[in-house]
Amino acid sequence: MLDWLKTLFNPPGPRYRIDPVAFILALVAAPLIVTALTFPIGGFSFFVLLFGAPLYLVIGTPLLVLHLRRNPGTFRSLMFLGFKAVAVLVIFWAATMRSDQWTSVLPALAAFSFGFGLAWTATFAGLYLLIRRRRQD
User: Fold this and answer.
1) So what's the pLDDT on residue 6?
2) What does the alpha-carbon distance between residue 129 and residue 83 come to, in Å, rounded to a whole number?
3) Which pLDDT score, from 0 to 100, does residue 89 have?
4) Distance (Å, rounded) from C-alpha 44 to C-alpha 18?
């Protein structure tokens, strides 16, 4: 009855080991680095971090763990995973908005969320792969 759930959390085929130190360091450091680099541009990146990081951690962590258990974790695959996750969230958010909200600041916030989500994913992918490679050597 719940075979699909067993398959989701225990996938058939090759399994890959996730380096927990590299994963946690990259997961926490990625939003902080992007915020530090983009803060001088407008200062709003602190608020993006404040409101976006909990969603990034709650949704991104399980997606990244599931993906990295099934795949070797290349930069391209992690970026594509981030693109799909952020796109689904923005589409879901846009579909649930009322028509009078489209004239407010919410569409701009969705665009910033999309951009920062991709930047955080790119930074995570680069850091994770770099730290993992250095720890294996």
Assistant:
1) 67
2) 18
3) 79
4) 33
Q: What number of other Cβ atoms are within 10 A of residue 36's Cβ? A: 13
Q: Which helix (H) or strand (E) holds 114?
A: helix 106-136
Extract the tokens encoding 78.
């992690």
Query: Would residue 29 be called left, alpha or beta, if left means φ above 0 and alpha means ψ between -120 and 50 degrees?
Result: alpha
Q: Average pLDDT for consecutive 10-residue bins of the chain (137 residues)?
A: 66 78 94 88 76 83 89 89 85 72 62 80 94 87
* Residues 44, 65: Cα–Cα separation, whole Å: 29
How many H-runs (helices) and E-runs (strands) does the chain carry? Answer: 6, 0
Distance CA 3, CA 88 (A): 25
Q: Where are the beta strands (DSSP E) in 11-123?
A: none
Strand, coil or helix: what is 20? helix
Q: What is the pLDDT of residue 48?
A: 78
Q: Determine the pLDDT at residue 47.
A: 77
Maximum distance among all alpha carbons in the chain? 56
For the record, the structure tokens of 127 come out as: 């850091």
From CA 33, how far away is CA 35, in angstroms rounded? 5
